[in-house]
Write a structure and sequence with these properties.
The protein is α/β, with parallel strands linked by helices and 307 residues long. The protein folds into two domains: 246 residues, Spore Coat Polysaccharide Biosynthesis Protein SpsA, Chain A (Alpha-Beta Complex); 49 residues, no CATH class. The chain has ten helices and 13 strands. The strands form three sheets. The protein has a five-stranded mixed beta sheet with strand order 3-2-1-4-9, sandwiched between helices. Strands 5-11-7-8 form a four-stranded mixed beta sheet, with helices on one face. α8 packs antiparallel against α9 and α9 packs across α10. The chain is globular, with a radius of gyration of 19 Å.
């Protein structure tokens, strides 16, 4: 019986390096066994062929925005419709996982009913197809420890949640900034356990350039990112891994540690996640970050004057 559905919208399989790292990632997920279904969404070049070759599921017809970028809302809805399961994971298609993540998910599920599991990634340069023969896990982990680096605590590249969470998701563009931050914000806003699993879960990002994006720009500089932020509810919903309220350590879900930085951040977001007031959140943000708030106001004023 399927316990977990992993779903993703790959980039086109036309750039040789992108094709290689996406194949590596999907192959690593297939190593998890029969309790896991893998779903590739979209009809860009090579996706259907890759799904057939790797013996995973494929949903070609998903909704896209005006730029042709797949929408998270459609991905979630179609995956739920075609592959009902108790647990789901949405993930970027350049992320390698290890089969042991299943044990971490199960332990989390035993301790929390409504939750979101997220975590930092390890960045690693990989240019070749990986060999998934016996012992590949230890070999790859050694390579990560030797040549990889832990990414800063910005957004997450994977999101694991029970079926009854995230029943409604805005029309975010996949692969652009903002939607991953909203996932963390929404979990806190709904009062779910938002768990940083970095210590127990090694997720490996295979480094790549931005040549697949318009003009080769980083995703956070694209208009679709600004639209994602608008759909998320504005700048105040840009939550990071620092905004999680729990951690997974040795299979146990614990309350996140509190230092002065974390304490004041919790004070800052209190109006948003507890009082559900965006107006108060703006005032608190201005009190904590007056210079940034002033710059945001000036940018907003300029845009209004142009309208």
């Amino acid at each position: 019986m399927t316990q977990l559905v992993i779903f993703t919208a790959p980039k086109p399989f036309k750039n040789p390096h992108i094709s290689t790292i996406q194949t590596n990632a999907i192959r690593s997920w297939t190593e998890m066994g029969r309790e896991v279904e893998i779903v590739l969404l979209g009809k860009d070049e090579g996706i259907g062929e890759a799904a057939k070759k790797l013996d995973v599921n494929h949903i070609p017809d998903i909704e896209v925005n005006a730029q042709g970028t797949p929408l998270i809302s459609s991905m979630v809805a179609l995956t739920r419709q075609h592959f009902p399961a108790p647990l789901y994971m949405i993930i970027n298609t350049d992320i390698l996982l290890f089969p042991e993540i299943l044990a971490s998910i199960q332990k989390t599920r035993e301790q929390a009913d409504q939750f979101l599991m997220v975590g930092q990634r390890w960045d690693l340069p990989i240019t070749e197809l990986l060999n998934f023969s016996a012992g590949w896990e230890d070999q790859l982990k050694n390579r990560v420890i030797t040549n990889g680096s832990l990414h800063p605590r910005g957004g997450s590249d994977y999101f694991i949640f029970p079926d009854y969470c995230y029943q409604s998701v805005p029309d975010f563009a996949i692969g652009r900034a903002g939607w991953d931050n909203w996932m963390i914000y929404e979990g806190r806003h709904q009062g779910w356990r938002v768990i940083d699993a970095t210590r127990d879960v090694m997720a490996v990002h295979q480094n790549h350039d931005y040549s697949h994006l318009p003009d080769g720009k980083p995703h956070y500089k694209l208009p679709e990112t600004f639209e994602n932020i608008r759909l998320a509810g504005g700048e105040r919903t840009i939550f990071t891994l620092m905004d999680t309220d729990a951690v997974l350590v040795d299979g146990k879900v614990k309350k996140a540690g509190l230092n002065w930085t974390k304490f004041w951040r919790e004070v800052e977001v209190f109006p948003l996640i507890r009082l559900k007031s965006y107006t108060l959140a703006q005032l608190f943000y201005a009190a904590f970050h007056p210079v940034k708030a002033y710059r945001e106001f000036r940018a907003w004023k300029r845009n209004k004057d142009r309208e």
